[in-house]
Task: inverse folding
């Protein structure tokens, strides 16, 4: 076992041996004026923090002292926030230890309070295999939910986060005046981040300090799998093309020789930790290429790939590589593999895993397109920018009296808002590219991964009604700015400058790979390109349920004010008032593409009337019934108006996203508790086995084998206890009043588990169940699959259950049932069925019953044994009546009860009639055995063929009953007829008898002594 000992301060912190503090600023409510000021200060601080940093920000440093929070952003600019702090501190310590065995890391979390309270919880992280530790403990991944419970994972993905079980002790609530600041530390005690809490609830702002945690690993993100090898590979692309030329304001394809681009690839890797930056690698992230060639088990080193560039953004590292296509392995049974090795500023070597590399050559024809073309949306011809100046000039580009682009403008005209245009627009952000050479059609072409390709722009002169459009623009490299003959004013709005975009290849003397003419229309700020859609997520966890009382969640005033109207997740947007928001946005009652619900929901808008100052909101009703243990999702979507008058009435109205969605995620937990059937009636059980008998003799009884399973439990019914983990509030449909139990025949009766069962005649069967498990059948032993169920008939029924709880059990009066019943007398080998107690709520959701499985034995009603007082004597005169025995006297009959004389047929002659004993026969005299020779043999083996037929003879009779039985029924006789020619000693005969009675036949071998010669 590889065991690590770590330490952590609250929420994050992986410390070697030090401890950390949780600082809580608590306000006392004795000064109303001070309290009011504090509320104002705190709320302003929270708003400022969220506006500047959003949900997750990487910063250079954070400090908190004397009520002042200073955050230094990535550019090194400090921002100060005031949080009044005049209170005493409360300290908590969170210790974390982890141990790894195989592919599982076990993390133990201990929270110790200053009052000596202690909470200890564990959770596990499981890797994909036991070779690579691809899941490492990351101190930046601890976070706290609104209940103060600590989780490990991604905060926006609670469903896949791990609940640690540790909850932060709640501080007194003071109407948003209890502010807590939580530090995150690494294993050396260095602060790696902060989280701000108000009244125990985390803000949406979490600040992580970049460059603090050391880089520990890179995980390759595969995009291709090599067919036949199953190996992840990096694909180097050796692309060829015909260069383009500009002739008479038209882009033409040259007929010159084919040109080849540099052979490049841009593999991506996940960086651990995700807060790492390129500054933590030496030489701008230069990678050493480690190479091996795989041929069965042989590996050969070599170098043929060069590093070009490395970037790290949001935890993803992209590495640009260039290869010599002539040096790739081309034998079918060999594969080149590479790993990348980096050096950190701490002088540590970090190496990626080996992955395959292959070369792919292709002829391409690149065209420039609008930005709608992406890797996931290859687009079509409508996305192609014009390849002639004349076509671009012909594109309609007009504005209306509100400076908004007019309906009917050409789709390829690029609208640029005045404010953005005078500040400067990077034209590369408007351009994408696709390869149209492929017979399959358009394919996205990512020119940015080719270090030799450059996208540049030139101003194109043209006039509209003698107005030179180029006088309303300036170009500085790729930066476009709107001007008005050199000045900066709004007179440029409505003008449509044009640029020529060229993609050139420095690998081939700046040959043109693609080119296009692009018209830009300068519009008012109200026409700004909307920011990305915003989704505000609210998570909830409930227990699995019938959902008879439909699960409902409503947004409240605080939620709308602090999370919806504020647009705090986008620093480019400012908060709107309730009136502004609902003027700009309307509730979308119909489903909206991209916001698909999971499960059946009713989502409605909560409206307020008149001059009501209350916020609007949304009501979520999960109508799926019953619920499953899964995650349900619903959206309340607000859609932005297209009314230009409304948009221009709000500052920067055009920038607000098209959709603002409230996403409600409900995780339904499966049951985490079990039930135990309690208070079995002790006298009804032998271990885990209960027995069912036929009715005792009586004037109103019959020989039915029936029973009531409820009688096996105290009080005549099954009662249950739940394990301590049961939470009635979380699982209301599982409280006792909503639960029902039933008895069923268990699937453990089936052949796959139990094997075969054998009847008294030696026939073997497999047991089968009907659909609701209330019938037990015996069918052919060799049947499989559907043939087993198809073979179930009334004729092979063995036992059945009925009544409200399936508590009445009846053994069937069929040939197969009798065959199984009569195989053994009462005892451990009696035929039995395996039973289950099913405990479920009103919508058939089951709770496991720990002791719900038991065996139910069906006891044969009649037992047969030898009567030791009856015997034969050798050497008597022929025909001596002493050697003729009544078959009814030769055997002793008792019923299933244990006590004599209650169970004795001899003492209760009416039992013969009650149990329907009609015959006693030896069906095959050749099976009679003897110990004549000192060992047990058949008569033929012992006496020879001729004499074997002269030992005994049978004269059986069948009995028909009428009236009261007053004497032993006449079942016939058996006579000893052997004539001795020599004096003999005593020996025994073993006679197999078949007894026929109401419940079929019993086969029993009795012993009869033959006494020595007279």
Result:
């Amino acid at each position: 076992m590889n065991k690590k000992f770590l330490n952590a301060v609250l929420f994050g912190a992986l410390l070697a041996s030090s401890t950390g503090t949780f600082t809580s600023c608590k306000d006392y409510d004795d000064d109303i004026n001070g309290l009011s000021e504090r509320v104002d200060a705190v709320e302003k601080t929270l708003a400022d923090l969220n506006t500047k940093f959003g949900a997750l920000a990487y910063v250079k440093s954070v400090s908190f002292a004397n009520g002042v929070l200073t955050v230094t952003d990535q550019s090194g600019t400090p921002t100060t926030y005031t949080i009044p702090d005049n209170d005493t501190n409360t300290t908590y310590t969170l210790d974390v230890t982890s141990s790894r065995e195989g592919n599982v890391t076990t993390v133990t979390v201990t929270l110790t309070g200053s009052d000596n309270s202690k909470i200890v919880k564990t959770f596990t992280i499981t890797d994909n295999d036991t070779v690579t530790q691809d899941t490492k403990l990351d101190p930046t991944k601890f976070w706290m939910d609104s209940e103060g419970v600590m989780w490990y994972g991604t905060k926006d993905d609670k469903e896949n986060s791990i609940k640690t079980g540790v909850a932060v002790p709640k501080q007194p609530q003071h109407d948003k005046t209890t502010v807590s600041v939580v530090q995150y530390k690494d294993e050396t005690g260095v602060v790696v981040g902060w989280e701000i809490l108000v009244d125990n609830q985390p803000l949406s702002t979490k600040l992580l300090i970049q460059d603090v945690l050391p880089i520990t690993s890179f995980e390759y993100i595969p995009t291709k799998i090599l067919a036949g090898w199953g190996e992840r590979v990096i694909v180097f692309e050796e692309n060829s093309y015909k260069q383009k030329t500009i002739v008479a304001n038209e882009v033409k394809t040259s007929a010159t020789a084919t040109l080849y681009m540099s052979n490049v690839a841009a593999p991506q890797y996940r960086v651990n930790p995700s807060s790492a930056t390129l500054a933590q690698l030496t030489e701008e992230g230069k990678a050493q290429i480690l190479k091996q060639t795989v041929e069965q088990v042989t590996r050969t080193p070599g170098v043929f790939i060069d590093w070009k560039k490395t970037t790290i953004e949001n935890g993803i590292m992209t590495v640009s590589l260039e290869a010599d296509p002539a040096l790739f392995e081309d034998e079918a049974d060999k594969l080149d593999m590479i790993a990348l090795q980096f050096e950190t500023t701490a002088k540590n070597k970090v190496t990626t895993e080996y992955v395959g590399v292959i070369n792919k050559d292709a002829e391409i024809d690149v065209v420039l397109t609008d930005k709608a073309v992406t890797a996931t949306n290859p687009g079509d011809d409508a996305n192609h920018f014009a390849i002639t100046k004349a076509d671009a000039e012909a594109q309609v580009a007009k504005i209306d009296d509100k400076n908004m682009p007019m309906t009917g403008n050409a789709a390829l005209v690029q609208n640029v808002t005045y404010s953005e245009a005078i500040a400067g627009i990077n034209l590369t952000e408007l351009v994408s590219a696709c390869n149209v050479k492929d017979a399959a059609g358009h394919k996205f072409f990512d020119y940015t991964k080719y270090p030799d390709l450059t996208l540049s722009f030139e101003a194109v002169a043209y006039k509209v009604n003698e107005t030179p459009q180029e006088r309303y623009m300036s170009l500085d490299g790729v930066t476009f700015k709107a001007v008005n003959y050199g000045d900066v004013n709004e007179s440029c709005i409505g003008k449509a400058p044009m640029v020529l975009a060229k993609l050139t290849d420095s690998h081939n003397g700046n040959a043109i790979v693609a080119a296009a003419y692009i018209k830009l229309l300068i519009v008012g700020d109200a026409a700004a390109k909307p920011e990305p859609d915003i989704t505000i997520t609210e998570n909830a966890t409930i227990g699995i349920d019938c959902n008879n009382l439909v699960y409902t969640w409503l947004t409240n005033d605080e939620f709308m004010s602090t999370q919806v109207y504020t647009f705090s997740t986008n620093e480019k947007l400012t908060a709107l008032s309730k009136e502004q928001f609902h003027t700009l946005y309307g509730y979308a009652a119909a489903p909206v593409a991209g916001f698909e619900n999971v499960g059946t929901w009713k989502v409605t808008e909560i409206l307020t009337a008149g001059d009501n100052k209350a916020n609007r909101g949304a009501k979520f009703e999960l109508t799926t019934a019953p619920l499953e243990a899964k995650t349900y999702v619903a959206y309340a979507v607000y859609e932005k108006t297209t009314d230009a008058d409304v948009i221009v009435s709000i500052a920067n109205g055009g920038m607000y996203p098209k959709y603002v969605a409230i996403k409600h995620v409900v995780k339904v937990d499966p049951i985490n508790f079990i039930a135990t059937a309690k208070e079995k009636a002790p006298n009804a059980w032998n271990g885990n086995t209960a027995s069912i008998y036929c009715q005792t003799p009586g004037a109103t009884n019959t020989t039915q084998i029936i029973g009531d399973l409820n009688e096996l439990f105290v009080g005549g019914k099954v009662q249950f206890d739940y394990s301590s983990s049961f939470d009635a509030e979380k699982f209301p449909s599982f409280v006792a009043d909503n639960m029902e139990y039933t008895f069923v025949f268990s699937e453990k009766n089936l052949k796959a588990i139990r094997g075969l069962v054998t009847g008294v005649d030696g026939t073997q069967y497999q047991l089968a169940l009907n659909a609701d498990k209330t019938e037990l059948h015996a069918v052919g032993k060799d049947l499989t699959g559907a043939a087993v169920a198809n073979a179930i008939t009334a004729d092979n029924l063995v036992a059945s259950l009925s009544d409200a709880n399936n508590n009445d059990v009846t053994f069937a009066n069929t040939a197969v049932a009798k065959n199984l019943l009569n195989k053994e007398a009462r005892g451990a080998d009696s035929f039995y069925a395996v039973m289950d107690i099913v405990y479920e709520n009103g919508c058939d959701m089951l709770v496991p019953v720990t002791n719900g499985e038991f065996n139910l034995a069906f006891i044969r009603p009649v037992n047969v044994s030898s009567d030791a007082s009856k015997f034969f004597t050798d050497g008597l005169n022929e025909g001596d009546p002493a050697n003729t025995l009544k078959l009814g006297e030769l055997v002793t009959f008792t019923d299933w009860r244990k006590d004599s004389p209650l169970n004795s047929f001899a003492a209760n002659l009416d039992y013969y009639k009650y149990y329907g004993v009609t015959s006693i026969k030896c069906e095959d005299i050749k099976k009679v055995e003897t110990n004549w020779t000192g060992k047990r043999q058949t008569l033929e083996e012992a006496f020879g063929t001729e004499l074997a037929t002269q030992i005994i003879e049978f004269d059986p009779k069948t009995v028909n009953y009428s009236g009261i039985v007053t004497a032993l029924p006449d079942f016939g006789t058996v006579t000893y007829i052997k004539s001795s020619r020599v004096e003999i000693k005593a020996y025994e005969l073993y006679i197999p008898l078949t007894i026929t009675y109401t419940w079929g036949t019993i086969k029993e071998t009795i012993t009869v002594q033959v006494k020595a010669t007279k």
